[in-house]
User: Fold these one by one.
Assistant:
Number 1:
Amino acid sequence: MFAFIPDRDFPLPEGAVASGDGPRVVFAGFPSDYSLGFLLDLLLLDVQLVGVVTSPGAHPAILGDNALSRVADHLDIPLIRAWRINDEHSRLALSQLQPDAAVMASFDQIVGPGALAIPAHGWMNIHPSLIPAYRGPEPVYWAIAEGAETTGITLHRAVAKVDSGPILAQAALAIHPDDTSGTLTRRLVASGLELLPGALSALLTDAPGVIPDMSKSSYRGSVGHRPVQTAATAVEAERMVRAGVPNMPAWAAADGDVVYVTKARVTREPLTARGGVIAFPDAGLDLLETSPLCGCHHNTRDCPHRERRAASVPAG
């Protein structure tokens, strides 16, 4: 599975990363599976990686030694920890890199006109949905949670409005009935890597791209650990569980306590047959795998990400 949680820590094998002598490219993202998949593949192309930009406010791990800092150290290039990418200090640091282009994958800030204008050929964003559908920070989660049959990945020119720039490359993928956010993200990254060379070439040659039809746009916001009991049906609750794995597992009240649910199934067996089953109007939800800890970077029972919207469950 691939996670968006920005805490990936891995040793960088000596000689594993090289930088070409082509156009000067900056990468912006997190030390997460999703971001690193594109960063490491970018290094296989004939480009010079001249800097890495990340966002310290997204996660405490970004302030210390992590996968991104090791890549930057290995290549002897700047690592810019930009609290605000659009402020003067960040724009000056970016300008000093003299980039031809910037590529971002899971970067949590909207890049404004001033910063967008710094790379000679602009910025490219890699977004895991079929833009203009599922714009926003959690597209993989919502595609699974809402029962979409298809999603995809889009490589597009970045503009000052989130996830709405001209499309340089795009691919659709079917969502499997047993997909979690982690398994689906892994396939989306693999599909995006196939598109990366062509999309980057299009960016560097100032290809206009295809303007998305924003009349068909949809936007979904951030999500925390959602309470399973707020689902309307067992089918919806089971999708909620899969959507939350591994980044933000859903939670439930079980035997008067809070558990985080990482695997569940819809069951139409008698609900009194055994414990661990939550009743819904259509069926029951059998909690197959649970944990007392949330599994995100807090890894606590009473996680600050836990949404408390079910009146019948303990408040922690």
Number 2:
Amino acid sequence: MKNSAIGNAKLRLSIGHKRLGIGIATMLSLCAIGLAFGPKSIGRFTTTPSRHTGPRINTLSSILPIQVRPLDHTKLAIQPMADRLRRRLGQRFSLPGREITTIAGTLTVGSAEHSVTLTRAQDDGGERVAISLDNGPANLAWDGTGGATSSGNKAGGSDRALIERLALDSPDQFVLAQLRPVAYYTIAYGVRPSGISDDYAGPVWDMVRLGEVGDSPGRPQSEWRLYYVNSDTGLIDKVMSDENGQRVLAEFSGWAVQGTEKAPTHIAWNINNQVVMSLSVTGIGYSAAH
């Protein structure tokens, strides 16, 4: 995909790093920022509709040029919050044969709409993600070592923002991030939105911060991500990140069940309460890494 394809979508982002302290004051600031956003209830779990029968799954070698290393599933029990979520999401993090998740859908960036195919591959070093737009080659990719790449080169600008949002604002990445240099920190339990009435009956969240550790070439532009884990469902409702000082909030508004697996069906990314990008899933499939 050419950079101009995303540039035409009018997604305007400046790329850079903003280092955040991990002191108590910073944690409280993050909580205050997060609670400024209104709540959004998670979709009910229903039997997967017919359109979610799963996309055609390509062979792994045609999508990811680097061989995926077999995953030792016992490593995914190190972080209690991540371990709890992986059990709710299904069996793809526990049993062999479901290492590859293929997601088909519609990606909207600004006013431009693209068909998209994401391939998420579990790897002993974390996760590898390949992205194909408009039935083209999967030349947008992310992994925990090299970070975001476009046509094999380090991605920048709006391409990097797009890749990191799709790769990292994900329940799968919340589980698999413990295999790369990331620090999990539970900020608070049972958090409610600010300014609510005493009879509030909406969702409350356990807030977990994932902070990047070290200075690897693949380090994301946001040095932290704040995950809102719904205290009732145990699933992720929102993910907040920082893109050069801009708060980006990814909101999950629907989930689907396919066999034993649960996955989000719609994600919208907001900056200053404006939707700048969204993903609507039309098909999900699971397969073994061959």
